[in-house]
Amino acid sequence: MTALTLAKLAEIAGAQLHGDGSVMIHSVAPMDRAGNGEITFLSNVKYAKHLGECKASAVMVKASQLELCNTNVLVVDDPYVAYAKVAQALDTTPAPASDIASSAVIDSSATLAGSVSIGANAVIEADVELAEGVIIGAGCFIGKGTKIGANTKLWSNVSVYHDVRIGSDCLIQANAVIGSDGFGYANEKGEWVKIPQVGSVVIGNRVEIGSCTTIDRGALDNTIIEDNVILDNQLQVAHNVHIGYGTAIAGGTVVAGSTTIGKYCIIGGACVINGHIEITDGVTITGMGMVMRSITEKGMYSSGIPLQANKEWRKTATRVHRIDEMNKRLKAVEKQLEQNERV
Fold this sequence. Notes:
By secondary structure, this protein is of the alpha/beta class. The chain contains 4 helices and 38 strands. It folds into 3 domains: 4-89, MurE/MurF, N-terminal domain (Udp-n-acetylmuramoylalanyl-d-glutamate--2,6- Diaminopimelate Ligase, Chain: A, domain 1); 105-301, UDP N-Acetylglucosamine Acyltransferase, domain 1, CATH 2.160.10; 310-342.
């Protein structure tokens, strides 16, 4: 168990300490369950009324909530960000691997920095380069010519195809697939003719990729994921997609080929994004959004139909099917009104 003094956590969080800095903190806990040796935080003001009842050894709050607290306090600008930093400092998640397992298969031409760790049954192919601090989990496959930057971690059974570039300080969760073939085929009289995907995948620094997410290699040019991008579980990122700096995409989203997504976009879960379009910087798309055309203006966009009771949904669906008929009737009424006005 990791334990740090409250004074040290104040330094990590960039906080102003009110109370005993020598108190030892070993974990973060929810406000209603936090106790001795634990720290909690308030990010939603509607729970401020519970601060006086909190039994945590310390809380992280904004300055405006300081007087409501009855324990040690870290005053911060953003309690949720402070929580993230403190949680990182107290994190006890084990590494995906330590040292180099005897069962790992490593080609003699691979270049491994001295601090690299490789788990059991991993395969490292020819001309791979692994920088300082890289950790490869059990059962991973790293294809020929791939280069992985410093301190990047791959959890178990990640497959990285040939000639992929992954930057530093990345985290790739279990069973992700990076660099598989894009969906490229020509059709000759009903027969599918495969188009070799000769591009690659280039992933920047501080990128996180969720479990079972697939990122296809480019057909001719590369698929590109810029720095500071976070991708949730079970995404499909097709060939030649370009995702800009700081964008976040939630689980189950599908991005079709040759689409460009700008910087600092937020895309909700289960969205479907058409191919060969562009989404400008700073766009938010709410869950289940279907994006069929380019988005050229920053803002929030939605298209998913909210859940209704079945009876109400059936009425809505029936009305939707009658929209064309209703439109024709409306135009007929408008035409008749125009004729009456002329008389």
